[in-house]
Amino acid sequence: MDRVVKLEQIEHFDFITDVAVCGYGGAGASAALEARRAGSEVMIFERFSSGGGSTALSACEMYLGGNGGTKLQQELGFEDSTENFYNYLMACFGKYADEARVRKFVDGAAEHFDWAEGLGVPYKRGFYPGRDVVAMTGDSLQYTGNERAYPFNQQAQAIPRGHLPADADHDGGKVLMGHLMRNVVESGADIKYDARVLSLIQDENKRICGLLVKIDNKVQAVYARQGVILAMGGFIMNESMTKQHIPQLESICTRHGNPGDRGDGILMGIAAGGNAIHMGQAFVGIAHYPPSDLTYGIFVNEQGQRFINEDIYLARLGDYAARQTNQKAYMFIDNKYYSRPDYHETTEIIAVGETVEELERESGLPEGSLQHTVAYYNQHAEQGVDPLFHKSADWLAPLVTPPFALVDYSLATLKPTCFTLGGLDTLPTGEVLTAEREVIEGLYAAGRTASGIPRTGEGYASGMSVADATFFGRQAGISASQTSRNEPPV
Ligand SMILES: Cc1cc2nc3c(=O)[nH]c(=O)nc-3n(C[C@H](O)[C@H](O)[C@H](O)COP(=O)(O)OP(=O)(O)OC[C@H]3O[C@@H](n4cnc5c(N)ncnc54)[C@H](O)[C@@H]3O)c2cc1C
C-alpha cells in the first residue's frame, strides 16, 4: 500500500479527532498526554496489543540537567548550568548537532525531570559514583557517558546526568511507561491497540490531514483536524533498511529494540516529502565495563596499536572499533586487572603469555607491534599520563603482572547491540521538514522516528534516547494542539 494517499481518494472517515498519534511508546505517549492536557481530542494507534515499545524495554536512564541542575542533581549537591550542559552536548555531536534542538533541550531538561516525577515515577535521592552502564544500587543519579573522559572533560565540567527510576535496575522503562500510560488513560485519550498505521492522508495543499490504519483486518480512515504525530520508533528491525543505511553493521549487530522498529514512521514521513537525515548513524554497544577495573586494560587493533582512551562510554568504543581495519579490536590486560566483562561473558581470550612477546607471537599480531604499544603505554602510565589518547590518570596503571591476555572484542565475534539514530529532520517543535527545510503542514515526528539529540554513536550517552523521545514527544504534542483545526470534507 502507498505510504501516502490523497484526501480525494477517501470516501468515508471511520474516526475524526484533533491529534492522531502513531505509536504508543515513549515519544507517542508523551505527545498524546501533552496534546490532551492542551485541550485537543487525541487518538493513539499502536500496532501491538499493548503499548510501551522499546521505551518499556529500556532501563529508562534519562540524560537531564541544566538550569542549575534538576531537582535530583541539586539535592545531591551537583550544580549543572545550562551552558555547561549545552557545551557538553555540542561536544558530543559536533558538526552533527542541531543547535536549535540542543538549545531547546538544555533549557527545558530540568523541568522535564519534574514532569517525569510528576507522573509518579519514583527517583531515589542517591548518587552512584562508580563506573557502570546502569547503577545496580537503586540510586537514581549516575554518570552515564563520556563526561569524565577526554576530550569532553576539556570542553565541559563533568556532571552526572543519568537519571534512573528508583530501585529498578534494568527495568526502569516499565516503571516510566506504567506511570506515563496511566496518565494518558486518565487524560481521556482514545487508545486503539492492534492498530497498524499504514499510510498518511494528504490534502490538495500537501497538508497531512489523517491516516489509514488496519484494525480488525480492516483498513480504516482517520481524519486529524490538527495533525498527525509519527512516533513509531527507529528501523533496526527492518533488514532492507539496515542493509541500505548501516551495511557495515548489518551482519554483525544484535538488533536492539522491539519488533515494531521497522521504520514505518520514517518511510511515511519520506513519502510525505520529509527528509531523513543521519541514517547511517547508529549506537554500537561494546560494554567493556563493568567491572570497572577492565578500564585499566588497553584496546589495540589488528596493527597492534591503540586507537582510543579506554575510559570512554561503551558506544564511543563501539563506534571507534567499527572503524578499525576489519572491525577488529582486542583488549590487552594483565593478571592484576583481568576479569570477564559482565555484559559480554562469552568474550574469547585469543592469546595468553608470561611475557608480552610470547602473547604477541601467539596472537599473530605483527611482530613487535604490541610489544611497542605496551612498552610505550606502561612507560607513560607509570608517570600518570597518556600522551596519545589522554586516558584519565584515574585509570592509568602499568600493565606488568603476568600472565597477560588478549581478549577478542572484534565486532564479528562480539555481535554488539545496535540501534539506529537516523530519522526525519524536524524542528524542535516536532514539525517535519522537507529537504529544503520547509515545514510539512500537519506532520510531526518524535523519538527514534526523528533525528533527535543523540545523532552519533561516537557522542552517545545512556539516557539520551529516552530523554529525547519523551521531551520532544511532549513538544510535538504541544505544537500539534496549538495548530488551528481543519474540518473534514463532508
Ligand atoms: C533493551 C534496551 C535498553 C535501552 N535502555 C535505554 C536507556 O536506559 N536509556 C535510553 O535513553 N535509551 C535506552 N534505549 C533506547 C531507547 O529505549 C529507545 O531509543 C527509545 O525508547 C525509543 O523511543 P520511541 O518512542 O522513539 O520508540 P518506542 O518506545 O519503541 O515506541 C514506538 C512504538 O510505535 C509502535 N509502532 C511501530 N510501527 C507502528 C505502526 N506502523 N503502527 C502503529 N504503531 C507502530 C511500536 O509498536 C512502539 O510501541 C534502550 C533500548 C533497548 C532496546
Automatic annotation (TrEMBL):
<protein>
    <submittedName>
        <fullName>FAD-dependent oxidoreductase</fullName>
    </submittedName>
</protein>
<keyword id="KW-0560">Oxidoreductase</keyword>
<dbReference type="GO" id="GO:0008202">
    <property type="term" value="P:steroid metabolic process"/>
</dbReference>
<feature type="domain" description="FAD-dependent oxidoreductase 2 FAD-binding">
    <location>
        <begin position="18"/>
        <end position="453"/>
    </location>
</feature>
<dbReference type="InterPro" id="IPR036188">
    <property type="entry name" value="FAD/NAD-bd_sf"/>
</dbReference>
<dbReference type="InterPro" id="IPR027477">
    <property type="entry name" value="Succ_DH/fumarate_Rdtase_cat_sf"/>
</dbReference>
<dbReference type="GO" id="GO:0016491">
    <property type="term" value="F:oxidoreductase activity"/>
</dbReference>
<dbReference type="InterPro" id="IPR003953">
    <property type="entry name" value="FAD-dep_OxRdtase_2_FAD-bd"/>
</dbReference>
<keyword id="KW-0285">Flavoprotein</keyword>
<keyword id="KW-0274">FAD</keyword>
<dbReference type="Pfam" id="PF00890">
    <property type="entry name" value="FAD_binding_2"/>
</dbReference>
<dbReference type="InterPro" id="IPR050315">
    <property type="entry name" value="FAD-oxidoreductase_2"/>
</dbReference>
